[in-house]
Design brief:
Elements: H1 2-22, E1 28-35, E2 40-44, E3 58-62, E4 71-75, E5 80-83, E6 86-91, E7 94-99, E8 108-114, E9 121-130
Length: 143
Amino acid sequence: HDLTLLFSISLILKCFFLLAALTIVEVKTLDIVGHVGKNVTVECSDWNVWTNVNFNVKYLCESPCSEDKHIIIKAEYGQTKNNNRIELTNRENGLFVTFTNLTMSDSRKYYCGVERYGHDSFIEVNLKVIDGKFIHFIFISTK
């Protein structure tokens, strides 16, 4: 009887650790630099998943992307959607996110997400917007 109990506890612990290991997800990160007033397009592809997600609904959300209220824009496969200065195109080969007329306040962490059964998958997008103004100096030499 003690052996059966020990075996049952061992089996439960193995299942627990297996499930815990399966919930650890590695998130791919993209670091993007854009210039104030310009446009930048980000390609989210090569999702870290075992199943084909080419035709799934994809979206862009703000960090932490843990609730629907964080979703900025969502597109079905084959669609292009716009929300203010952000355009989202969901194609078979990836999700294309275009930020137009960049401002400094666009600098932040975003996530490209793909809807899946169970947990959605994400690609982290760190957008840094820099001021593109340059100061030009003219040197005049007098001899």
